[in-house]
Amino acid sequence: MRIAWFYRYDQKSTEEKRFLSDAVKLYTHLYEAGAMKPDTMSEDQLLYLIGELYLRLEQPSISRQWFSRILTKKVSEEKWRKRARDRWLEYKEESQSTPTLVDDQ
Q1: What are phi and psi of 41, to 5 degrees?
Q2: How far apart are CA 37 and CA 58, in angstroms?
Q3: What is the average pLDDT across 85-101?
Q4: What is the overall mean pLDDT for the chain?
């Protein structure tokens, strides 16, 4: 994921997205395999990160699914619930204020 940051800094979006895609695949695999060590990152933090990466990869429907996992858990860390909720609301506001390229007529 850090390599993706370098490409973002250099404004090379194709390469950035390639590395973000690799990162989200890895994090998803870690989550599904239950292979994340608790001292590295909490489950809620991992769910949030996966949701955020999908937003950056312009896949909001998948992102929403991951954010929803945090919000629908019986027990979750409040700070990650709040971040997931706030980030999704931020995304919705951004997407509503961005004009679409397709004419709806």
Answers
A1: -160, 140
A2: 28
A3: 83
A4: 86
